[in-house]
Amino acid sequence: MKDLMKKIWKPGLALMVLSAPALFACDDDKNDDQFNPQVAQLATSRYPGANVTKTEREPFGYEIEMWINGQEADMYVDHNLQWIRTEFEDMPWASLPEAVITAFTAGGYTFNPYEDDVDRIEYPNGNTSAEYYRIELDREPTDIILLYNPDGTLYQDGSHTPGGDVQGGGAQDPMNQQAITDAVKARYPDAAIVEIDREPYGYEVQFYLNGQEADMHFDANYQWLRTEFEDMPWESLPVAVTTAFEATGNTFIPYEDDVDRIEYPDGDTTGEYYRIELDREPRDIVLLYNPDGTSRTR
Questions:
Q1: What is the DSSP secondary structure assignment for residue 183, as one 8-state letter?
Q2: Do 266 and 188 belong together in one domain?
Q3: What is the pLDDT of residues 198-252, one digit of tens each?
Q4: Which long-range contacts (CB under 8 A, 24 or more apart) does 87-93 make?
Q5: Is 271 contained in some domain?
C-alpha cells in the first residue's frame, strides 16, 4: 500500500512474488518484477505498437502495464505465459456500444464521469478473443459493478463469472464484504479498515494497525494469503537481518528505500519474512530475508 491516497479510487497491486534474494542483475532475469523482456514480448506480439512500461510478478503469473494508442491497459498472463485477459482502463463513456448504454440506463443507473469508471476487457474465447465492459459506480457503502457483453446482455462467463443478482441490466459483483471484514478482525482485532479491493487472485484489504499501514490479501474463497506491513522502520528489523543485509555491501537509504514485513500462513502457525527494496537505477534491488537472516527464495 505504497502511497495510499493514489490508490484510493483504483484496485491496488498485489505483492510481487520474487524468487531470489538479489534480483535484477541482468535485463533478461525472469525474476525481474520491473521489466521482463520475455513477458513484455507477449504484449507486443498480441498488440503491435504497444508501449510496455512495466511487467510485474503476481500470484497468478504476470501483469503487464502498457499504453496502446494513448490508452492505458493491463495485460494478465499465467505462470505458463498464457494470456488470461487484457483490461483497457478508463474508457470514455461515449465509446461504449449503444446497446450497453441502453441496458445500463434501463437499469435505472446514472454514470458520473468524475467518480465512476468503465473498463473494456478482452479475454480468450476458444481460438479467438471476446470482450465485455465493466462499469464501476462509486457508491456508498459498497461500489456497484455491472458487467455487459457488447450487445447489452449480462456478461457471465465461467472463467470470469461475476455471480450475484441481476439488477436491471447488470450483474452485481458478489464480494462478501462482511466475510472479509470478519476475517480481518479475527486476525487483527484492532485493525482500522480503509478499503477493500478486488484483485485477479481474490481480495486486498487496506488497513491501519497501531499506526502502521498494512495490506491483507485473500483468495477468491476468502482464505488468508498474506499480510504486508509496509514501510517498517529500519531499526525494527531483527539484528540478524540487518547483519546479513550489510554483508551484501548494500546500503539502506531511509528516504528512498523501503522495508516490508510479510506475515503468511505456515501450516497451523504464522510465518514471516522481510522484504527490502532498494531504489536504484536502472533496476530496483529486492532482497528477501527470514527473521534469522537467511535469504528467502519467495
A1: H
A2: yes
A3: 776 788 899 999 888 999 999 888 899 999 999 899 999 999 999 999 999 999 9
A4: 87/119, 87/120, 87/121, 87/134, 88/119, 88/120, 88/121, 88/122, 89/117, 89/119, 90/117, 90/118, 90/119, 91/118, 91/119, 91/120, 91/133, 92/118, 93/118
A5: yes
